[in-house]
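Summary for the steering committee. The consortium agreed at its last meeting that each partner would contribute one worked example illustrating the joint modelling workflow. Our contribution is presented below. We chose a case with several input lines so that the handling of multiple components could be demonstrated. No manual editing was applied between input and output; the record is shown as generated.
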Amino acid sequence: MPELPEVETVRTGAEPLLRGRRLGGVELRRHDLRWPIPVAAVQGLAGRRCTAVARRAKYLLLHFDGDGAPVALVHLGMTGRFLVEPVAPRRPRPAWRPHEHWRLDFGDRLVRFVDPRRFGALDVAAGADLSAHPLLAGLGQEPLQPGFDGAFLHRVSRRRRTAVKALLMDARILVGVGNIYASEACWRAGVRPRRAAGSLSRRECDALAAAVGEVLTAAIAAGGTSFRDYRGVGEEQGFFARELAVYEREGEPCRRCGAAVRLTRDGGRSTYWCASCQN
DNA sequence: CAACCCACCTGACTGC
DNA sequence: TGCAGTCAGGTGGGTT
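What follows is the complete predicted structure of the assembly.
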């Protein structure tokens, strides 16, 4: 569900609300999310101050002060919501909602994690070697950081027969791009999603890298895409859906050439594209 | 390795 | 109305 723009929207929303605040307590209602939550490590965060809210790939990273400078890793999975709610200190907390699995109580701010499908995750890493954490160690290039460009895409795609869209979604190579933005980037670049990655010219890699950067940046500016479950920290919707060129627009006219947008299925995922202006 | 395919889980929707 | 089937912003792990 949430891709880079949605996670980044949550990050920018949460940071000013949590940074500098002390975590009073942690409440776990159920810990069988994607992986079991390490209860002791999470409880060990209590009493510490949040120093930053960062992001790596689609993970939210809550940095804390004190011994080991621990970091909470939060993944929203497909349906996770990371809600930050203002509350009155030392007053009763709101009732638990359906599918609300854990809370972080910051005194005057309450973080509530709601995730019906439970594909989300909560883990704790040591700050010193954060990038060595098993969930982060194998992750690839950040698309909005230096190092991502046409030369990069050209280099990693040589001799690869996998589809371009699958390559864009391969987190070992490039992080943050999921099913919506992979289709959108291919459309912007005029590249067919099923093209063998190794067949891309250097020029096409330039176009594709630019397209990825543009679509992610535009989506962040719009607060992400809310089709179904995604919401920001205050439950606000993102409004990038109305700027999408192809995703969930099967049969509607291509915004560039007017041909009907097509839907195909690749590896169980929907792919939207224009057969007339993507080559 | 690279390229698939599956599972994990719940809810919404479609068609019979 | 009910029930079965399909699908949904992700991704680690297993198989070929």
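The longest helix of chain A spans residues 202-221. Residues 34, 77-79, 99, 115-119, 160-162, 166, 228, 267-268 of chain A lie near DNA strand B (CB under 10 Å from a C1').
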